[in-house]
Amino acid sequence: MPKSIMVDPRKVRKATQVKVGAIPVNQYKKTVKQEIKDNKDLSAGRCLRIYRDMVLIREFESMLDSIKKTQKYGDVSYMHAGPAHLSLGQEAAAVGECIHLGVEDHIWGSHRSHGEVIAKGLRAVEDLQGAELEAVMTSFWDGRVLKTVETHEPDWEGLKVGVRNAFKTTEAEERGVDFLIYGLLAEIFARETGFNKGLGGSMHVFFTPFGIYPNNAIVGGSADIATGSALFKKCQQQPGISVANIGDASSGCGPVWEALGFASMAQFKKLWDGAYRGGLPMLFNFMNNFYGMGGQPIGETMGYDFISRIGSGVNPENMHAETVDGNNPLAVAEAYKRKKAILLKGDGPVLLDVQCYRQTGHSPSDQSSYREREEIEMWRKADCIVEFGEKLIAAGVAKQADLDAIKAYAERKITKAAKLATDQAISPYLKLTADAGVAPIMFSNRIDEDLPGIREGDVLMPMEECPRVKLIAKKSRKGIAENGKVLKGNKAVTFGEAIFESVLHHFYHDSRLVAYGEENRDWGGAFAVYQGLTECLPYHRLFNSPISEAAIVGTGVGYALEGGRALVELMYCDFLGRAGDEVFNQMAKWQAMSGGFCQMPMVMRVSVGSKYGAQHSQDWTTLCAHIPGLKVVFPATPYDAKGMIATALSGSDPVIFFESQRLYGQTETIHPEGVPKEYYRIPLGEPNMVKEGSDLTLLTFGATLYRAQEAVAILEKEHGVSVELIDGRSLVPFNYDMLVESVKKTGKLILSSDACERGSFLHTIAGNVTQMAFDYLDAPPAVVGAQNWIVPAYEQEDDFFPQPHWIVDAYHTQIKPLAGYTPVSDRGVEALMAEKRFGIC
Amino acid sequence: MQEIIMPQMGQSVEEAEITQWLKQEGDSVAEGEPIFTIQTDKAEIECESTATGVLRKILVPEEVEVPVLTVVALVGAADEDLPDLAQYAVGTESTPAASPAPTPASEAAAPETAPAPEAAPAAPSEAPVPSAGKGFASPRARAAGKRLDIDARALPGSGPGGRVLEEDVLAYHEAQESVPSTPSARRMAKMEGVDLTAVPASGPRGHVLKEDVRQALASGPAAAAQAPLPEASGEGKVIPLTPMRRIIAERMVQSKFSAPEFYITVEVDMKNAVAFRTSLPHFKPSFNDLVLRATARAIQDFPQVNARWLGDAVEELPDINIGFATALPEGLIVPVIKQIQKKSLQDINRETKELAGKAQAGKLTPEDYSGNTFTVSNLGAFGVDTFTAIINQPDSAILAVGQIKDRVVVIDGGMQIRPIMKLTLSSDHRVLDGAVSAQFMGRLKEILENADF
Predict the structure, then answer these.
(1) How far apart are the first and last CA of chain B?
(2) Measured by CB atoms within 10 angstroms of the end CB, which terminus of chain B is less buried, N or C?
(3) DSSP A756
(4) Is the predicted pLDDT of residue B126 greater than 70, yes or no?
(5) Residue B125 pLDDT level (bands cut at 50, 70, 90)
(6) How far B104 CA lies from chain A's nearest CA (Å)?
(7) pLDDT digits (tens, 9 = 90+) for B21-69
(8) Does A817 sit within 8 Å of B139, measured CB to CB?
(9) Inter-chain CB proximity A816 and B166 less than 8 Å
(10) Which residues of B fall within a CB distance of 8 Å from A779?
């Protein structure tokens, strides 16, 4: 909504035509001989390398196919229960892609990406060989992967093939090849010595030092994450491009379309400033093997004839889309060379439709019931390796004996890796216990005590000159005046301003930080938390995203995995479902799935609504708390919000930062010291003792705190029940010490939040407290949640969200009858059971 | 006043429910006139009145299932006084026939109709609680109860449905503490769950004594509140308690109420023992000495008898320390012969004389009358044939010795006159079973009859 873009009715209403230019399909025509003659990048040696790489992939996948189907590969016997989505037949697409990719170019894959890992890895081994490669290998997992291939069956005999020995490998390179193949296979077999300690596995394996970023078992999952990687490269002025290797059928996935839209936002080329202006260095590589699992996008499940046609719907450049022959590595390589140049020039993004064919099933158990045997046979006759081998011989680059030598070499390499990776003594499993294995790496728990500072051009004015900073400076830091009166938001620092202060501090002290979401710039977010930031920050640090929740979160994941610090926002908690996969499968998982190698410094601010009915007022904190790998916090006071978002923005873990819309204007009335002007952090996971008491412990999360205070007043003044009130502040982590101590004292516990009662996280806490302090309980913990209905209109919200008298009712009905009290609601066991039978309570 | 009962309509009908009263209280009713309808598990039946007069009282309302033969109404003259209706209360406690609540025994008796197996373990071992909510205590209340030695579930509860909360336990405890009472009365009240506030005090300065608690227990919880101990009539001689009297009272009550005793009596032919006693050249043991010696020997063969109850275990003691009850003008005392298994008959003879002398002179030290592991009480000198004694805790058994008296006994088919002594062992069944006590008594009899001292 920048004011510079005028929506002029005279222009808008003018009659014209949308012109969609031509999209090239299979335009590559060169022979091997021509390439070697004309292309300095494509020597005979390079062609032999291409052949070797394809044969290694073929042998690797054939080995897995054989093990899955027969539990044997040569002398190796092994049962692999896990997945193996093979790319037999697609080798040319993978190798062709990587010929022009450097280590700084990052590929993000799919469940079927073994081939891409090998192709990219071999390219990186070649590029890095020498001190750099040694440094990577000796430092990775303290050299454990390397040591395994060095100690057992060391065989560094290189290749020497081709006419005039055009392709020779060194011992250093061979060590790298073994490292790569073994690290990959051990990971597929879930071994601790695998690239991700066995926690990634076949569908997720990756190795970032070689530019191989997470493969993703969610179809199309890499599209928006890779876009975040490209965003990082742009915002942080990093070299290289980002590639999403996604399948043809992923073009049916909403998040993929969201990624296409996000990556092609016009603002990159039109509104971003200086060095930051230009399209994202992002390449969507559709590995088009013509099938989903069995469904066929072209002709059956989608409407397009070529995937590349999608480009025409995204931007005027048609995303530089092109359909290329993925059966010919040189055709793919040639396309990549051109596309990479476009991307580095700042004219991205690019869409490539790489046609190839999966000769085997979706997985080894697939009987290919959905396709004709004849079709498979035709593709086998056009097999990319056979075809390319013939071309090499025809071009005089190799003789059959050279090709045979490469095949024998590949068998040797794969056999060694298979032997080592299936040997339990050499390649053990990671021990998974409460304090070892995956548990300690679910969260990296790093806090950057000192922020790295900013670069020139990262801010537009000194912080103290920010108009909003000046405005806030006039306000009281405390929400309660000397005379005891509660100050309104126009007189004292509000919840929204408290968050703003910390976010602003981080923007002025951490160049890695970017913030985006819907209406984040100019408007300052729908609830104006960022109001004033637009004046201080250039576009590359604060921008508006499309209304694409999946892409907002997914790009944040990619940005964080690259080492950036992403602060993204969902306007309403209710929109979380739109980003379900990105939050639950991506943001939450990659730290652990990397074996603890990667970190996820990402904060997602989520606004919990009210007043707007069933789809804009829900508290879904529980959904997030259920998912392992996420930190879930829900501060309720300005002091807590300011300190906790500072911690979240300094940490290395994914934090979902819930904010209640009821509270943006709230001043600090809970912490008597008010909101410090200075920057500070509050550790996540520590509840706050709002008020001590002796007869009842009352725990709340979020805005319910203030209604609980009213309940406390009723209980204490009218019934003489002394209440200890605790604000949970954080769902995950949650330190139970204070709560359990309190319950030991009072023996009675009521828990309340605005989340629907059924399945509420409050029940988890109630259950845990019952286990931790059973003998101290004088009554069952009572959970006072919202009704298990849709949220009604604002006018009737008091019938839906917990009210002060509900808490008193819970005390009266479930804990101890209060003399002379008549409950307003029926919380009796029979009423509860009756409603549950109908599924509404 | 005549009783109308729930008729037994067929052999198999155990319970029935009045579906409708055809007469109301105050209505006249004649014998043979339909008075109510009942629903059995088989049919609805109209029942006739078995009396003529005015229906004075309906005891069982409609739609309440009661056992057959329960009195359901009273018919009498219009001006006749109603009897105490408490006796007709329909419920599990006051009407023995009306206790349908399953007990473990009745479940075992009818396995085919027993509830689902998983329900069985959940059934409390005590009598099932009749109404929901009664008898439930929160974990915290139970913990407090455990700490204060109070059965929380027995208290009235202030929580929802009568759930006992911690504060109920604390309030009860405080109330108990505020009742002036002797320590042993408090101990006993706790152990037996007697509410001291409802026990009439007979002690000095209004203190509740252990005896008061015992009486309260004996007369039942309801009686405890209603039936105070008798006041002194003023006509008799009031003898204040001596410390010894009080201790005896407390200890005997404690023993009687904690140890489930059983008794075994044997007759012993003392012919050889009598001869043995007179045959000794240097000293003449008493018969009691012989019994002590024989008892020590028998205990060595049955060490289970020389044991004490620890609550969660039984401890068999290595030394046999036998106390012998000695009567004194103000009561009785039990001096103890320590390690009697190591002592000769002559030692025993000397030591009993010594201890008895000190007892009569009031010179026993606590050391002399403590440490007993078994006790012998001999009332033979008073001409008693046989009696049962109350166990002298912490012992697990006590031997009651009667007089030796010539009696006609049948030996080898012929009548003979023999000096017979009757011995009765009281055993604490928590520690000892009948067979062990019987074997012990058999061995004791054998030693005495063979004069195998």
Answers:
(1) 72
(2) N
(3) E
(4) no
(5) very low
(6) 28
(7) 999 999 999 988 889 888 765 566 788 888 899 999 998 888 777 777 7
(8) no
(9) no
(10) 138, 159-160, 163, 165
What are A595's two structure tokens?
A: 């074996």
Regarding the domain with residue range A38-427, which homologous superfamily does it belong to in the CATH classification? Answer: Thiamin diphosphate (ThDP)-binding fold, Pyr/PP domains (3.40.50.970)
Nearest to A261 by CA among A309, A310, A307: A310
Q: Which of A85, A204, A509, A616 is catalytic?
A: A616
pLDDT of residue A206: 97
* Chain A CA closest to residue B146: A775
Yes or no, beta carbons of A775 and B159 under 8 Å apart: no
- CA angle at A321 for the pair A318 and A324, rounded to the nearest 5°: 160
Amino acid at A15: A
Closest CB to B160 among A747, A774, A817: A817
List the single best residue of A743, A771, A778 to mutate versus B (max B Cβ within 10 A). A778
Domains, chain B, in order of start with CATH, read: 2-98 (2.40.50.100), 139-230+239-245 (4.10.320.10), 260-449 (3.30.559.10)
Beta bridge pairs of residue B428: B261
Please work out, in degrees rounded to the nearest 5, the angle formed at the alpha carbon of residue A829 by the alpha carbons of A827 and A833.
105
Q: How many CB atoms lie within 10 A of CB A422?
A: 20
Q: Which residues of B touch A (CB under 8 A)?
A: 138-143, 158-160, 163, 165-167
- Class of residue B422 by CB neighbours under 10 A (exposed 0-12, middle 13-18, buried 19+): buried
Residues of A in contact with B159 (CB under 8 A): 778-779, 815-817
Q: Give residue B443's pLDDT.
A: 95
Taking an 8 Å cut-off on Cβ atoms, the answer to whether B138 and A777 are in contact is yes
Q: Which residues of A touch B158 (CB under 8 A)?
A: 816-817
Cis status of the peptide bond prior to A452, with omega within 30 of 0: no
Query: What CATH number should be reported for the domain whose range is A463-660?
Result: 3.40.50.970
Identical topology for domains A463-660 and A688-837: yes
- B16 pLDDT higher than 80: no
**CATH fold for the domain made of A688-837:** Rossmann fold (3.40.50)
Strands of the sheet containing B44-48, edge to edge, are B44-48, B34-39, B15-21, B65-67
How many CB pairs (< 8 A) connect A and B? 39
| Model pLDDT for residues A778-813, shown as the tens digit of each residue | 999 999 999 999 999 999 999 999 999 999 999 999
Are the beta carbons of A776 and B140 separated by less than 8 Å?
yes
Contact B165 A813 (CB under 8 A): no
How far is Cα A244 from Cα A678, in angstroms, rounded to an integer?
A: 42
Task: Work out the angle at residue A286's Cα, subtended by the Cα atoms of residues A285 and A291, and round it to the nearest 5 degrees.
Answer: 160
What is the pTM (predicted TM-score) of this model? 0.73
CB contact under 8 A, A779 and B142: no
- Mean pLDDT over each residue of chain B, to the nearest integer: 82
Whether A616 is catalytic: yes
Interchain proximity B143–A813, CB inside 8 Å: no
Give the end-to-end CA distance of chain A in Å, rounded to a whole number: 44
Task: Give the amino acid at B375.
Answer: T
Of B139, B141, B158, the CB nearest to A774: B139
pLDDT confidence of residue B12: 57
Using CB atoms, pick whichever of A775, A813, A814 lies closest to residue B139.
Answer: A775
Token pair 């997992």 is found at A141
- Domain definitions of chain A by residue range: 38-427, 463-660, 688-837
Both tokens assigned to A773: 């302090």
Q: Is A572 helix (H, G, I), strand (E, B) or coil?
A: coil
Which DSSP string do the residues of A240-278 spell out, in sequence order?
S-EEEEEEGGGGG-HHHHHHHHHHT-HHHHHTS-GGG-S
Which parts of chain A sit beneath pLDDT 70?
1, 841
Q: How confident is the model at residue B150 (pLDDT cuts 50, 70, 90)?
A: confident
